[in-house]
Write a structure and sequence with these properties.
The complex is a heterodimer of chains A (200) and B (522).
Chain A lengths: L1 H18 L13 H8 L7 E10 L4 E10 L2 E6 L2 E6 L6 E6 L2 E6 L17 E5 L2 E4 L4 H8 L5 E11 L4 E10 L2 E10 L11
Antiparallel strand pairs in A: 1-2, 1-11, 2-3, 3-4, 4-5, 5-6, 7-8, 8-9, 9-10, 10-11
Chain B lengths: L1 H17 L10 E12 L2 E12 L2 E13 L5 E7 L11 H11 L4 E7 L15 E3 L2 E4 L9 E5 L5 E4 L3 E9 L5 E6 L2 E2 L9 E4 L6 E2 L5 E11 L5 E12 L3 E2 L4 E6 L13 E8 L8 E5 L2 E4 L2 E2 L1 H5 L13 E7 L3 E7 L13 H10 L2 E7 L7 E4 L6 E3 L13 E7 L16 E2 L4 E5 L4 E5 L7 E5 L2 E5 L3 E3 L5 E9 L5 E2 L7 E5 L2 H14 L3
Classes of the chains: A alpha+beta (200), B mainly beta (522).
């Protein structure tokens, strides 16, 4: 009987040894919340996507929609039939504006920071749920400084980042101009699918 | 006997010496108490008051003058009304301006003055001729008495007197408002007597038009009748082509004749206009309205004419007055004299005094228009965009009148251009290269030798003679196309490709500029 008990103990021990996790096991590879957050912004390194900018006027119940396309150093801006390309490949950026059947080229001085979400850090947000993050209340001051608010735009608030499995899909926030608040929805799509060529 | 003759002679001389001068021109004087002059978009405005002395009578008078040379500037005179379709009507001059702006969106209306006498107690029909942009809505009176018609050609020439009537004519205008065909109407409410004749049947014709005749039934968009109930202006579009018997329904008219066998002669997109062809110089007048007596003729005030009028005639009474005058250099001006307010020193004038005032301001020819409570002179206030009344309104408010004159600036769109039928012209190529620059100026490439364009913005057409245009419009989305207007040699081009121009309200523009600038950083 004693032998049987010893055998069973040995067998359990072996079983336990066999079941002990090792360094290479899955549980040890779970990404942290910060890593998940940062992964959603990874696409910005390639800088290839479409961006719809929608400005909603709460009072007029009116939406204004313009499109931007990003492909590396080239950015295209479309507002109705107005089309402009921005070329940031050289130290002196250029702007190509469609004028009828041709494009007028001129030098341009751009803000070096890029759109506000290029600088988002995990610490600035609270995790709302698996698909959205909310900017912490104490972070708006730094955000205002980051995008260099001046003149008529006086502030941004209620900023939410929405994500899907792979990347950020929407950045939604209020923007205050004078005393009027507008809702801005930045919708990101076609990641990696944009192919821009500067006009000849 | 000799003594008696001498006594009679002396008595007559004595009587004659105390009779006021009937000519009186020599004793006309206007002693200015206040006079202000300014220019509003090139229109000269004089506001003046003083003592008018004429025929040994002196009265305080207030009047306003507006004038501009329509030969040397981009100003023209446009006849105004606010008639609804199938009716005449009366409206105040501000409503006239609004209607004119709808009709001619490419013109800028700066000033307005009331026009002809009219049927004030009933229909609002103008007493005499009324032509707007070559459309003869009222041909005028057969026997106008002391009335005149005054019109203006595109060269700025003033035509006056009375038009002759050359008969009702059928005008077939294509979709571009080019004159495809003009044919004299041979019979009204009577069948054609041979294969060459054409006839028109109006809704006043109660019988059936028999079968076998070629007929075109036109659905009317407007009909205008004279005081006798005769329809002298008919406008509409093709409803039906038939040889069956028809009766004329309300708001339709029927054209009958062998010519209408040709199915291409009148098609759905054509506009059919049946109206009087005017003669005596009025055939070239784009805008015409009626007026009253000529108060200055070839530089002479018509005192003799006025003195010959019965003592009860309006000529001999002081009232607010409106007059139109033409100077030797082509300047057209209006004077509106205040009246019916003696406590304020506003007595109004008689015809002779009005004539003297017009001559004082250089009129070679001048005409009395409707006066009294109808006298109205409006001038745009550049600060507010509203039209301010310059004269004292004797009714206390702007009276609703039948028609009037507007000073308008801008290019005059060619109208009734005669084209060949069948139309064998080749079309201009469509303009290209449309864009709006960063300063909001619209550009395109058209035809350097024929710079007449139709610009269409959100479905609304306007005439253009330049290849640039400031887009001074309210925030919104605008679909823009342009085409080259045809002439006798080339047909109208197709429309260009459309562009979309967004004008954002200021806040939205600020937001978009912010993101646009930020986005360029990457």
């Amino acid at each position: 009987m004693k032998k049987i008990l010893l055998m069973m103990l040995l067998a359990f021990s072996l079983l336990l040894v066999a079941c002990t996790p090792t360094d290479g096991d899955k549980d040890n590879d779970e990404p942290t919340a910060q890593e998940i957050f940062e992964a959603k912004f990874q696409f910005l390194e390639d800088n290839n996507y479409e961006l719809e900018i929608k400005v909603t006027d709460h009072q007029a119940l009116d939406d204004t929609v313009v499109m931007m396309y990003f492909d590396g150093d080239i950015v295209k801006y479309e507002d109705g039939s107005y089309v402009a390309y921005y070329d940031n490949s050289e130290s002196q950026s250029k702007i190509h504006v469609k004028q009828g059947d041709t494009y007028a080229i001129s030098d341009a001085d751009f803000d070096e920071d890029g759109l506000l979400y290029y600088g988002f850090e995990f610490e600035q947000f609270s995790v709302n749920n698996a698909t959205s993050y909310l900017m912490k209340q104490d972070q708006y001051g730094s955000l205002d400084t980051f995008i260099g608010l001046e003149g008529e735009v006086t502030g941004i608030n209620s900023l939410q980042v929405r994500v899907n499995d792979t990347h950020v899909t929407e950045v939604i926030f209020n923007i205050v101009v004078g005393e009027t608040t507008y809702l801005v929805t930045l919708t990101i799509s076609n990641v990696g699918q944009v192919n821009l060529v500067l006009p000849a | 006997m000799k003594k008696i003759m001498i006594a009679i002679f002396l008595s007559m001389m004595l009587i004659l010496s105390f009779t006021p001068s009937v000519h009186g021109a020599n004793d006309f004087r206007f002693d200015i108490e206040n006079s202000e002059r300014r220019y509003v978009q090139g229109i000269e405005h004089i506001k003046r008051n003083g003592i008018l002395t004429y025929n040994e009578q002196s009265f305080s008078q207030y009047y306003n003058y507006i004038g501009v040379n329509i030969k040397t500037t981009d100003y023209s005179l446009v006849a105004s009304d606010n008639y609804r379709n199938f009716e005449w009507g009366m409206s105040n001059m501000r409503a006239h301006i609004a209607t004119a702006q709808q009709r001619f969106p490419h013109l800028e209306f700066v000033a307005a003055v009331n026009g002809d006498f009219y049927d004030i107690n009933n229909t609002g029909r103008a007493s005499h001729t009324h032509v707007v942009n070559f459309e003869v809505k009222h041909r005028g009176l057969n026997n106008p008495g002391g009335r005149n018609a005054i019109g203006f050609t595109d060269d700025g020439d003033m035509v006056y007197g009375n038009p002759t009537f050359l008969g009702q004519h059928l005008n077939i205008l294509n979709e571009y408002k080019e004159l495809k065909m003009r044919m004299k109407i041979d019979r009204i409410n009577q069948l054609p007597q041979n294969d060459l004749e054409i006839a028109i049947f109006h809704q006043t014709y109660a019988n059936e038009i028999p079968a076998d005749y070629d007929k075109v039934v036109i659905k009317a968009s407007d009909l205008k009748s004279d005081a006798g109930g005769n329809i002298n202006y008919s406008k509409g579009q093709l409803e039906l082509r038939t040889t069956d018997a028809v009766t004329v329904e309300e708001k339709t008219f029927v054209l009958v004749g062998k010519a209408f066998q040709d199915e291409d002669l009148i098609i759905e997109s054509d506009t059919i206009l049946v109206q009087e062809l005017l003669g005596n110089g009025f055939e070239n007048a784009r805008n015409v309205i009626g007026g009253g007596w000529q108060v200055v003729k070839d530089g002479v005030v018509q005192h003799d004419v006025f003195n010959s009028l019965p003592s009860g005639d309006m000529a001999h009474f002081r009232h607010p007055r409106t007059a139109l005058g033409q100077k030797a250099d082509g300047t057209i001006f209006f004077i509106v004299v205040d009246g019916r307010d003696p406590l304020a020193g506003k007595y109004g004038v008689k015809y002779s005094e009005l004539g003297e005032l017009m001559k004082l301001h250089g009129a070679v020819n001048a005409f009395n228009l409707d006066g009294g409570g109808s006298s109205t002179m409006l001038l745009r206030n550049d600060a507010t965009g509203e039209y301010d009344a310059l004269n004292s309104l004797s009714d206390g408010t702007i009276r609703s009148v039948s028609n009037g004159w507007l000073f308008a600036r801008g290019d005059i769109e060619p109208a009734f251009i005669e084209i060949p039928y069948p139309d064998t012209r080749t079309a201009f190529e469509a303009p290209s290269g449309l864009y709006v620059d960063n300063d909001g100026i619209f550009h395109f490439t058209g035809h350097s030798e024929h710079m007449e364009y139709i610009l269409m913005i959100n479905g609304r057409e306007t005439y253009l003679t330049k290849e640039t245009l400031p887009m001074l419009m309210a925030p919104g989305q605008y679909e823009i196309q342009v085409r080259i207007k045809g002439n006798s040699e080339y047909a109208t081009s197709p429309f260009s490709e459309s562009i979309t121009y967004n004008i954002h309200q200021n806040d939205v523009r600020v937001i978009l500029d912010l993101f646009r600038n930020l986005a360029q950083g990457k």
